[in-house]
Amino acid sequence: MSDVVLIHGAWHGAGHLTALAAALTARGHRVQALDLPGHGTRARFPVSYLTRDTDTLRTERSPLADLTLDEVAADVIAALHRPSVLVAHSMGGTIATRVAELVPELVTRLVYVAAFVPTRLGTAGAYLALPEGRTALGGGLYLGDPAAIGAVRIDPRSTDLSYQDELHAAYFSDVDSAGFAALAALLTPDQPLSFVGTPTGATAQRWGSVPRTYVRTTADRALPVALQDVMIRDADALAPAFDQVTLDAGHAVFAAHADTLARLVH
Fold first, then answer.
1. Helices 18-26 & 258-265 angle (0-180, nearest 10)
2. Is the pLDDT of residue 134 over 90?
């Protein structure tokens, strides 16, 4: 038995990780699936998102604009009642990296699942700007100027079918239409800009002292596997070395392949 803490990605929440949490619990682990501040049951919404004022939605400042990476990391640390395995998906890897840098003694293993590992370049945003990141789908989903509104904003409640098709193709490509509709309904619109713009400060002495595994997803259309590999190489140059597992899966591996992923974590 291990203590396992699940950290979701951008716009997601603990509800997206229900199947993974159940599969890990069935294997005897104590599992916490966290809602990060501003996400899931702790969501904070722009007023225009709730009123469906789509013009104002492009300019209204985010209620999460001032949320810092360290505040979110501190929230996760408060949930670590004993040394735990951190399983982080997508942008959750940025938070997990910061947590392991701050309290490596509370992290027994890091498991990055199609996740960001910002090391040499400092921030997730710097990695997204690399050529390997330019093949990612989802660029047509973003609303407004992130610097002005303080967040990377999407509109999961959009009634535009082409918008919904891009959201499905980018983030939930392994999930059928009914499953996509259910998962998309749980998304929140704002990812704090600090998640992509704040350096994790990862060092070999602290973050690098924690054993780590990377689950590569070769059919990923949101975080291309070529970009995953750049981050793995940079991390290994800082502090060797990742254990690696490769799945023929898209970005929503936590839902579409929950039992397989749970078996790997186990």
1. 50
2. no
Could you tell me which residues are beta bridge partners of residue 243? 213
**For residue range 70-103, what is the model confidence (pLDDT) as tens digits?**
999 999 999 999 999 999 999 999 999 999 999 9
**Tell me, what's the pLDDT at 137?**
84
Residues 64 and 44 sit within 8 Å (Cβ to Cβ) = yes
Mean pLDDT of all residues belonging to the chain: 97
| The one-letter amino acid at 57 | L
Identify whether the C-beta of residue 212 lies closer than 8 Å to the C-beta of residue 108.
no
Total-model pTM: 0.96
Q: Are 123 and 198 in contact (CB under 8 A)?
A: yes
| 3-state DSSP of the chain | CCEEEEECCCCCCHHHHHHHHHHHHHCCCEEEECCCCECHHHECCCHHHHHCCCCHHHCCCCCCCCCCHHHHHHHHHHCCCCCEEEEEECCHHHHHHHHHHHCHHHEEEEEEECCCCCCCCCCHHHHHCCHHHCCCCCHHHCECCHHHHCEEECCCCCCCHHHHHHHHHHHCCCCCHHHHHHHHCCCCCEEECHHHHCCCCCCCCCHHHCCEEEEEECCCCCCCHHHHHHHHHHHHHHCCCCEEEEECCCCCHHHHCHHHHHHHHC
